[in-house]
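Chain A, query sequence.
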Amino acid sequence: MTASAEGGERAWVLHRYPYRDTSLILELFTRENGRLGVVARGGRRPRSAFAALEAGRSLWVHWRGRGDLATLLQAEEQGEVLDFAGMKGLILFYLNELLLRLTQRGDPLPELFDIYEQTLQSVALSGRQIWALRRFERRLLEVLGWAPELKVCYHCGRHLSGEDAGTWYYWPEHGVLCPDHRPAPGTIAIPAGALRWLAGDMADGPRSAWLPDLRRCLERELRGHLSARPLESHRLLAAYLARAGQDSYQRSKG
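Chain A, predicted structure.
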């Protein structure tokens, strides 16, 4: 990590928490320096310029320092503030939790920064939350060097072609198996078309029928890199959906 960014660089706020009596620690995701921890001195004071900084805010930041925590000198908001109310807020929490758990401070990942920004905009502005998440998960694995090969059968080398219309098998941390092989323990059945989408540029959304299979494959893949500690965002999402289901039931009862 460089000693300063006094000329400024782009960043997104991933997380914030109190520090000492009046300050804040912010976890930032910057384009040039990767994930960065900074102290916003006096940031908890109501009139502080840093008081409104929170997750999901796009900034132009100036900072100075080395080591685990630098000092935030200035932060200016960039563009419109995106809306992350309700379910969108839980999706934001999930994306940020993945970055906090799977990346290291001071590791520049400009490609991942661009993918993250594109995903936030898709979630907040276009309503394409679900498949944007699947695209982000796959790109995250690719950038970090953990993405398995999806176009070639792990056992026989058969290539996934545009004519394949049957079922293949996703094998987390290994790759995929073609229909000619008996599924290994832990494999997940997935339509060939869904696999082609995941192995491609994912520029357009997949068929809605493929989304549950894509979720299972990527969730299992990521789980292998998250250690035994579950994601807090998954727990909150389950609670949110349960509460939404109860509210819907109460409305139906009048």
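Residues 167-223 form one domain. Residues 247-254 have pLDDT under 50 and may be disordered.
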